[in-house]
Amino acid sequence: MDHAKDAAFLDLSSAAEAPVSAPPVRELADQRKVFADQIDLLFRHSPMGTLITIVVGGIATYELWGEGNNELVSIWCVLMLAVGAARHLLYRAYYRRRNDDYGPWLRWFAIGALASGAVWGFAGTVFFPAHTDAQQVFLSFLLAGMVAGGIPIYSAVWWVYAVYGLAIIVPFAYILATYGSAQFIELAVLVPLFLAVNISIAMRLSRVFADGFRLRHAYAHLGQDHSMLNAQLQEQIEELLQAQREVEASGRKLALFAERAPIAVFEVDPKGTILEMNPSAENTFGYSSTELIGRSMIRMLIPSDEPVLNGDWWKNFVADAHPEAGLRVRCRRRDAVELICEFSLTPLVNDVGELLSVITQCQDITQQLEAERLKKEFTSTLSHELRTPLTSIIGSLQLINTGMLGDLDKEMSELTTIAERNGQRLLDLINDLLDIDKIESGKLTTYPEAISLDELVRESLVLNRAFADRFGVRMALRGDPPALAVFADKKRLIQVMTNLMSNASKFSPEGGLVEVGLERVDNMARVSVEDRGSGIPPEFRSRIFGRFAQADSAATRQKGGTGLGLAICKRLIELMGGRIGFADRDGGGTTFFFELPLMNQSAAAASE
Question: What is the mean pLDDT of the chain?
């Protein structure tokens, strides 16, 4: 047990009775110094305890001598002197060699106290049954005196006294209980009670000593601590003044920001009553500030049938006090015109969790939504209108290029081939636009079925090998793919494979290799397409799956593409419950992969 543990044990009882908020003086006490003072007090009392033990032992020897047991008395006397000498040597060693580690000294002192108590316990055990009634009374009085006299000697550390007292009383109480007399049996019961009372007194004295030492150290440092506290207080006052100036400056900035913000800003209380509003709020809703301040924002601006920002919704929001953003809500202007507004609500909460007010930001997005709707309608209509004649044009060019309408000269053949190729690129762009429009509008329908993914990978290789040949690139299957079944839309999966493999072919060097792999990763099937191109530029990685996303390089512009393929792949894979990603390939190039949940064997067999 080190001195920190000893100190904790010493203060166990006092800590149990300490008030919840300790006095400031007690908080200033140094526990280690208090522990050292308690050990020092034990050793200061040690010579007196040793002297008293020898003097009383000499009187007991004189009284017990000559009763036919002189040999036992001699042995007992030698033990008493040996224990006294050992305790004196410990006392001298303590003052010569003591250091900051007081734990071992306390343990050795406790061993000495135990030995001293055991010597007296030995006297009670051996000499009590063998003497007359008068000597028994003398011996009982002597032992009781030694137990009581140990309180001032050992009570600086109460458990040391408890060890000393138990070493005396336990053997003596045993002799009393087994001696045979009813009165002695009663005494055997009373003696431990007497010791328990003494231990209780020692515990209280131990707390008194500890508190006294704490007060001494506290008052010794009180002046220094007072000066330190004054300096800290002055520093804190300066910090508070600076914080107040910063808060005032921030308040002015926030007020200026809210006043000149291009969007509506309200401050409302927990009941929804408007406390402040900026000029943009007046312009957005047609009310002046005098008309809205002090009135309910929900009743004045939100239609009663709106599912968000109604009364019940507001109560839940106030109870949770969590910020909300991106809430699209129908609102009502002063002239009864309905708007679509996007709300962001920020609760202002104090240190104890109470909601003070809510900062509400509101932006009219009615025209923005209408513009998006018109753009989607225009894109969709234009794409459908362009696809029909474009398909006819491409079909006609294909007939011409196949020679079914007669042979063409070389220059004419080159022109019609270029026209067919660019027409096909334009048709791919239109198809991609239509796919994106269907996906984002939620109108794309998938037809999932049980698919053997290894067969689909092999089929995709066959379908796209001719495209790779145009760029002088080889396509190959990596290893022997495992038989894995997924539940997905086969047509859309082939579309994803085609996009990934065509991209890999376009951006691989001539003569390069595109490898397609299939493996199991936990409960997912992973399909990967590896190219050996120049890789993806770092600045382009974060938007590679975005619409019309293409790296700005000469190779990209030369190879062509709509910039929609990867965006379509991502949305299709997510619609089928999977995920898509990419990683740098060891040795150069990029690996694109997608993962789909595996079907269990029983489900796959049932679907077949």
Answer: 79
